[in-house]
């Protein structure tokens, strides 16, 4: 398999939908579907259910399956689906197999949560998952600056369905070196730290970027990727300036409010409740107005 369709889908805005919760704390299925439709109607064509902005690690196994199934049912053939999987190897494999059965085209393997990760063990972990679903494109989510590009190349030698990388180390120079050590043209490189890092990462070889902000304004994210695709970095930086404060609020205190700020913006627009699950927490009252003002000022 060449996975050309999947590769093309990764070279785009890779949206990470939120998982809205109802008043009783369960997944709000109606709001979830409505938010997905809003992304699709806004022109988004690649979605990652069960990503970090979707509070992957706060969902139960049953809820992660539900989110995958809701997404596949609502989206149909309107977008490519990259399902987030992770945790221990059997759980990750079961999630990947469920994604395949639901009709997804790809899986994104979350960064291992174990505090002790050997580079060879990283390869073993991803290889076990990739080999279980050879029909699916596999995208490792890399957050460790310790991993070398040679290890990714080793993984892809064993598993040709490893087709892309969500690279989320906040160092553009390291990304440029890593991508070239692994094989710049061998993988689709997705800037995994979203719009704030997209211009610098595109200059080094990325062709897509992930986004949580896209939940609030698909148009803003699409404006950035259109500018980057055309090589118009001044235009991309104008978008960067537009979203700077929003992303600073998300990144503050070790990204403590990464999801919270997105949900607060959506709540201010009447699109879902602001509820998040521990270890995230809702914004204090005095910060909500700033988020609402930013969201109201964007072209939605």
TrEMBL record:
Stored InterPro entries: Aldolase_TIM, DapA-like
CDD domains: DHDPS-like (cd00408)
Assigned keywords, A-Z: Lyase
Keyword NAD annotated: no
Residue positions binding pyruvate: 53
Nucleotide-binding is among the record's keywords: no
MF term (GO), any: 4-hydroxy-tetrahydrodipicolinate synthase activity
Gene3D superfamilies referenced in this protein's UniProt entry, alphabetically: Aldolase class I
Active site positions: 141, 166
Membership in a protein family: Belongs to the DapA family.
Protein name: Dihydrodipicolinate synthase family protein
């Amino acid at each position: 398999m060449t996975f050309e369709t999947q590769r093309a889908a990764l070279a785009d805005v890779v949206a990470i939908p939120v998982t809205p919760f109802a008043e009783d704390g369960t997944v709000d299925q109606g709001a979830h579907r409505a938010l997905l439709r809003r992304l699709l109607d806004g022109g988004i064509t690649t979605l990652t259910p069960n990503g970090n902005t979707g509070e992957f690690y706060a969902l139960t196994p049953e809820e992660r399956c539900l989110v995958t199934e809701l997404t596949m049912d609502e989206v149909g053939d309107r977008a490519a689906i990259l399902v987030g999987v992770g945790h221990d190897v059997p759980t990750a494999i079961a999630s990947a197999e469920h994604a395949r059965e639901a009709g997804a085209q790809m899986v994104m393997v979350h960064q291992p949560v174990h505090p002790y990760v050997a580079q060879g063990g990283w390869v073993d972990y991803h290889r076990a998952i990739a080999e279980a679903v050879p029909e699916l494109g596999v995208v490792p989510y890399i957050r460790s600056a310790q991993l070398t590009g040679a290890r990714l190349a080793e993984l892809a030698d064993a598993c040709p369905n490893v087709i892309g990388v969500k690279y989320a180390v906040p160092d553009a120079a390291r990304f440029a070196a890593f991508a070239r050590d692994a094989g710049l043209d061998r993988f689709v490189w997705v800037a995994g730290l979203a719009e704030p890092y997209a211009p610098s990462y595109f200059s080094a070889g990325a062709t897509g970027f992930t986004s949580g902000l896209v939940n609030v304004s698909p148009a803003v994210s699409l404006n950035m990727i259109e500018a980057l695709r055309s090589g118009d970095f001044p235009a991309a930086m104008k978008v960067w300036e537009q979203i700077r404060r929003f992303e600073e609020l998300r990144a503050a205190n070790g990204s403590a409010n990464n999801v919270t700020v997105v949900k607060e913006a959506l709540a201010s627009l009447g699109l879902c409740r602001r509820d998040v699950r521990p270890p995230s927490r809702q914004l204090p009252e005095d910060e909500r107005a700033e988020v609402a003002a930013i969201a109201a000022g964007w072209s939605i």
